[in-house]
């Protein structure tokens, strides 16, 4: 029996799987559907605004113009994300929160651009960007998420399927060699009122070929392309988070060069730590070449985040201890815990902030929320420090 060519095997498998995934996408989010966002209970709303629940309740009843939400299930009041944004504005305007406690940066404070990357797949880069970006958005920061991964997982989590929208402008169009589009034509609104998205598709792979060809002329400036493309819109945001592919390619280098901070998600395993050591050495060499052309470039912070972490797993605890001993404060004290709540939500293209809490085991849900909140607290602290707000978030 003659062997079947590899190309034919791959094509058959790709077609079958692609067709089924498209069917699934259309069933989950029909092409004309708009992804919604749940309402937030009073306790959640108060936590997001960082005010006491009794104080929040008092404002609802007595502060003129303060959002009242709606009553659900008898005596339970809930609020939309947009109402939280309005509540925060009123608290600032009426002097109930200080200007330094408001998440919007001032004209003298630079938008913070953070690249989230690691050479290894499965390190929860996309999940980190999604949950960190959404919680920062719910806390009132104006956030732009950028997907530079050809797998477009971040894009899919926001209910956008590139295969169903082949003409959709993406991150490739932002940095392509010929006639790049302005960021304003690519940025899309999401179901979170303070979070915008630059989506990705397989087209981003073409960027790597374009840069490689540009070296023939000896005049390539690929490392500045993303930074320059973002400059016209940075004034609209407080924070930019960039999701990158699991390889140190040209788009990642361009991303790091555009960044003021770097976050490296990492599984607590010896193989991942060994990979990280090699990866950091390679990144140092490559960025050294880039920085020789721009010696003023620097980063406000580089932090490691332990992901898929299980505090009862002995080997993971040992690796965590090793990293904290060797790298000290470079490792975030908070870990992104392994959680069925996060995994189950992802199966329906959602985050834990989108699922209804009543549909999830309460203890599992609260552990996941606490984990993401602690991580966000740490990154928020770095951002405020970069702005000169040293009194804590």
TrEMBL record:
CDD domains: ParAB_family. Residues 112-283 form the AAA domain. Pfam families: AAA_31. This is Plasmid partitioning protein RepA. It comes from Pseudogemmobacter lacusdianii.
């Amino acid at each position: 029996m003659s062997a079947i060519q590899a190309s034919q095997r791959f094509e058959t498998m790709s077609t079958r799987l692609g067709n089924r995934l498209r069917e699934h996408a259309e069933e989950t989010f029909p092409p004309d559907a708009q992804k919604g966002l749940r309402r937030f209970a009073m306790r959640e709303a108060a936590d997001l605004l960082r005010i006491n629940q009794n104080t929040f309740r008092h404002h609802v009843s007595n502060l003129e113009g303060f959002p009242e939400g709606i009553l659900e299930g008898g005596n339970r009041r809930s609020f939309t994300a947009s109402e939280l944004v309005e509540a925060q504005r009123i608290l600032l305007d009426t002097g109930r929160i200080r200007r330094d406690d408001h998440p919007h940066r001032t004209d003298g404070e630079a938008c913070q651009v953070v690249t989230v990357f690691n050479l290894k797949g499965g390190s929860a880069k996309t999940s980190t960007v999604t949950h960190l970006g959404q919680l920062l958005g719910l806390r009132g920061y104006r956030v732009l998420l950028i997907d530079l991964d050809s797998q477009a997982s971040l894009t899919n989590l926001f209910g956008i399927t590139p295969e169903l929208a082949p003409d959709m402008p993406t991150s490739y169009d932002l940095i392509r060699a010929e006639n790049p589009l302005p960021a304003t034509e690519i940025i899309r609104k999401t179901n979170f009122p303070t979070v915008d998205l630059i989506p990705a598709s397989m087209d981003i792979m073409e960027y790597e070929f374009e840069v490689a060809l540009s070296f023939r002329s000896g005049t390539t400036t690929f490392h500045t392309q993303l930074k320059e493309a973002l400059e016209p819109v940075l004034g609209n945001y407080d924070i930019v988070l960039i999701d990158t592919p699991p390889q140190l390619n040209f788009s990642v280098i361009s991303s790091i060069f555009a960044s003021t901070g770097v976050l490296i998600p990492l599984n607590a395993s010896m193989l991942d730590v060994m990979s990280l050591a090699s990866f950091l050495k390679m990144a140092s060499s490559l960025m050294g070449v880039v920085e020789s052309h721009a010696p003023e470039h620097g980063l406000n912070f580089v932090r490691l985040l332990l992901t898929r972490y299980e505090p009862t797993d002995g080997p993971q605890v040992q690796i965590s201890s090793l990293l904290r001993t060797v790298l000290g404060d470079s490792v975030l004290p908070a870990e992104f815990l392994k959680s069925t709540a996060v995994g189950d939500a992802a199966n329906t293209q959602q985050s834990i902030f989108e699922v209804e809490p009543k549909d999830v085991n309460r203890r599992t849900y609260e552990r996941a929320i606490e984990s993401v909140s602690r991580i966000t607290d740490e990154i928020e602290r770095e951002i405020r420090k970069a702005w000169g707000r040293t009194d804590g978030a």
